[in-house]
């Protein structure tokens, strides 16, 4: 075997192994009109919010140059998008038929931009927006989420109290090597309980899934990260917890997809650890305090308005419709018989004859 062929084979094998063992973005559920292509195209972690926006039919500030997402339908949008970020593991044993892609540069991200878009476009509707990180007790709810998840335990104290009540996951999960008395184990089990309670509350308010406003859910689970820190990734506790979480995520995706009539996108992001974003602040030599003024000497453009595309289409098609209307009217007037089609000439001819 020639040396170049050996190098190419080794490079390809290294890419495959990196894709298997590295951080992943997995699409558990998606409608037929949201197409994810099969392949191993890496996606930057900072582009995950843009991917969520595009799957929901929203525009983004910068084009997403990623071939994994195909062109979708212009007349249909998903009723919900659920993004679950799992920290502490690079990949989970999820179904092999699910679309999965390598995730590079896994910096912390939020879906605040997507939530703001939903709030702007559907302010008069009833969207459900929930962003929750149980380990950090971070919660953000908007719209009907305050009504739907009013009884959802969000603090660690509330979730642990929920574990001792009826219907707790402790009565159904195979705990195996996990213990109910360790803090790291309880944190992981609390996050699984949150997934169960969210599905139960969505089933109770199933009528909200039929409205026109899309819903958004963002969950961050750090229980596996605590288990890895306490027991190690080779421990039986960590291995058992990954199997439990993989099963819980599949059931969660099935339940959410059923609530929204198979019109929901469910993504899972698995990262061993989030990297600190590297940013560099620079000052342009053309920077000026008068940049936003119309009389700027640098001829800068006005700030882009996201309604520009909408206004442009309205004006364009209105002008086209008016031009076609004028053309049709002019053609009919040109080919009109004044003595037969016009009532004015007809009455005039009769008056002349009578006189």
UniProtKB/TrEMBL annotation:
The chain crosses the membrane at residues 308-334. One of its GO terms (biological process) is positive regulation of Wnt signaling pathway. GO terms for molecular function: signaling receptor activity. It is found in: Cell projection, Dendritic spine membrane; Cytoplasmic vesicle, Autophagosome membrane; Cytoplasmic vesicle, Clathrin-coated vesicle membrane; Cytoplasmic vesicle, Secretory vesicle, Synaptic vesicle membrane. InterPro entries: Renin_r_C (IPR056780), Renin_rcpt (IPR012493), RENR_N (IPR057318). Residues 1-22 form the signal peptide. Its main location: membrane. Pfam families: Renin_r, RENR_N. It comes from the Eukaryota. Keywords: Cell membrane, Cleavage on pair of basic residues, Endoplasmic reticulum, Membrane, Receptor, Signal, Transmembrane, Transmembrane helix. It is a single-pass type I membrane protein. Residues 280-355 form the Renin receptor-like C-terminal transmembrane spanning segment domain. Multifunctional protein which functions as a renin, prorenin cellular receptor and is involved in the assembly of the lysosomal proton-transporting V-type ATPase (V-ATPase) and the acidification of the endo-lysosomal system. May mediate renin-dependent cellular responses by activating ERK1 and ERK2. By increasing the catalytic efficiency of renin in AGT/angiotensinogen conversion to angiotensin I, may also play a role in the renin-angiotensin system (RAS). Interacts with renin. Accessory component of the multisubunit proton-transporting vacuolar (V)-ATPase protein pump. Interacts (via N-terminus) with ATP6AP1 (via N-terminus). Interacts with ATP6V0D1; ATP6V0D1 is a V-ATPase complex subunit and the interaction promotes V-ATPase complex assembly. Interacts with TMEM9; TMEM9 is a V-ATPase assembly regulator and the interaction induces the interaction with ATP6V0D1. Interacts with VMA21 (via N-terminus); VMA21 is a V-ATPase accessory component. This is Renin receptor.
